[in-house]
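hey so i finally got around to running the thing on that chain from the lab meeting. sorry it took forever, my laptop kept dying and i had to restart like 3 times. anyway pasting the input first so we r on the same page abt which one it is
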Amino acid sequence: MNHRPGVGVTPAATRAAAPEPAVCSRAPLVPGDVVTLTARPLAQLPVPRLDAAFFADPERVRAMVAHWSRSELCMVGNVLMSEAARLIEVELLAVLRTMCAREPGEPSVTHVEFVTNPNYEDQVYWDDESVYLHIKGRDEPVPIEFADVQDGSQEAALDARFCALLADYARSDPPNHGDHLVVNLATGAFERSGQWSHL
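ok and heres what got predicted. didnt touch it at all, straight out
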């Protein structure tokens, strides 16, 4: 029975008291109902906005997906992890653009290059203390100079955010020792290679 275009609800064998509001449909659901979306183009189908807090309870999520196969669980998990990794790139790019902003008249930073730090027990990470800037008009990358910042300042918060995002990025897409990561501040592209980049 369709409650609105594009959304179908398969009724449960036995009806019970209505649970808390569903996340994918405005119609009340009962335990055992299965919510499905038709394969219409997104332009024709309003995409449901899911509340993340609803999925914070592991028991609730397990009950909701108990009828899924392992491959279906992995398929959805991969989509979510891929989106999380994409957002790490978006946030890291925004932080790098803020950190590399120059005063008017100064040569602009076009790219930021990272090298690996193998001094970790669990895996190889991008080194957050050896960062190189590609500056417009210069042939060679220049090591960035990190100044001491006061605890509690905006600069300290930005530095902490930078280090956390760079570590998260390494966890989502682990580098090999000797890799180089170049971030294009204009296009937002992240490119990896095994050698220094001379742009």
